[in-house]
Amino acid sequence: MDEGKNPLVFRVMRLSGQVPSRRPPTSLIWGRAGGVEAGLEEKWEGEGVRCGVGTFSTLPSTFGNVYVGEQLRTCVNLYNRGELDVVLSRLKVDLELPDAQVINLFELPQENVNNYVLASENWLENVISVRLAHAGLHGIVCYAVFSDYRGESKPVKQVFRFTSFFPVKVALGRLPLPEEPHLSRNKFLLDFRLTSLMPYSMHFHSAELSAAPGVEAVDLNRNENDSAGDETPDVFSVTDAGTCSEDVVSFMFLIDVKDPSVVRTDKGKLNLGKLGVSWTAQGGGKGQLSNIAAAVDAPKARDEVEVRISAVPTKIEAHVPFVAMFEVRNNTQNSIQLYLQVRRDKVGDVVPVGASGRALGPVAGQSATTMYFSLLALSPGTHRLSGVRVVDIDSGNTYSADAPQVVAV
What we know:
Blueprint: E1 8-15, E2 29-32, E3 56-58, E4 66-67, E5 71-80, E6 86-96, E7 102-107, E8 117-118, E9 122-131, E10 136-147, E11 153-165, E12 168-175, E13 187-196, E14 202-211, E15 215-219, E16 236-237, E17 248-257, H1 260-263, E18 269-281, E19 286-297, E20 305-311, E21 322-330, E22 336-342, E23 350-352, E24 357-363, E25 367-377, E26 381-384, E27 388-392, E28 398-400, E29 405-408
Parallel strand pairs: 4-11
Antiparallel strand pairs: 1-3, 1-5, 2-9, 5-9, 6-7, 6-8, 6-10, 10-11, 12-13, 13-17, 14-16, 14-18, 15-17, 18-19, 20-21, 21-25, 22-24, 22-27, 23-25, 26-29, 27-28
């Protein structure tokens, strides 16, 4: 070979699946190109054989998609393509993260450097496994220092870059309790929703919420037959066979915020804790994500009195009276004299029939009452049921209801 040409070259190959191994994954493996190392049995795929179909894929074009949370297994190979032996004085492999932080994956023990003679057309390789925690551009940085036959010390460095992607899109939703919606201020359902971004099917095994202090959480995803220490929880399949991307799976937790002041953030959020999820991909690779912030919007300040239109008929005919139910809640600790009214000057095409207001009398603190009104749709179509309000007779304060849509035929 050319005298000016570096005799050492790094090669990085990805182990696309679990392969048999007769040695620990962190042991150094010596080999000789085109043959089998003397004194050892024949190598398995992944330990030096270059003809294993599907066993290796190399950087950069066929390295494959890499996803955050999955275990990346690579075989780093240092090959002496020169005609003379060399002596290694340093060998290390680092992982460069997207934020330029560097993590050491392997380094040759310095106390044994004089023993590492790499003969001509021989290689030294090591299987390295690392779980990726960041999305973005990574670099596998391979570095070695060697001495040639003249005793000159020379460095060699190669960087193999790849991009890791998020396997899922995370969305958090806050849902009221269906049986008691008025209690959903501090007690509600947390919807942990995951959209698959992988180009192949994946199966989620479990999702966990590590609740913050002041928060109680109940996992609603286990079956009644599941034991607390079950190591094989039910598998939630994100996709059917042959489909994958953009499919959605949802995990539910019952949340009870005991002390909102402890978990409320400066940005108007409730910090409920940290979420984690684990999965198995179609090819058998396992992955997990942890420390996902479980933050949802904090409830808005509650009015002293709330009024809402809680029920209307499913079928409303124009020019035919129908009955709607109104719910009024006193959120204070004291009894209040209240008056419920449908203001005729604020209504649209849905108007009250007969009296437009009624006294509710004293409504006790922390309690609710209901009232029924007859209404009439003046024309077919979609209308807003507007103009509903409650008046505090003593203070004169008014509280308006949201105006839901109704459809008349």
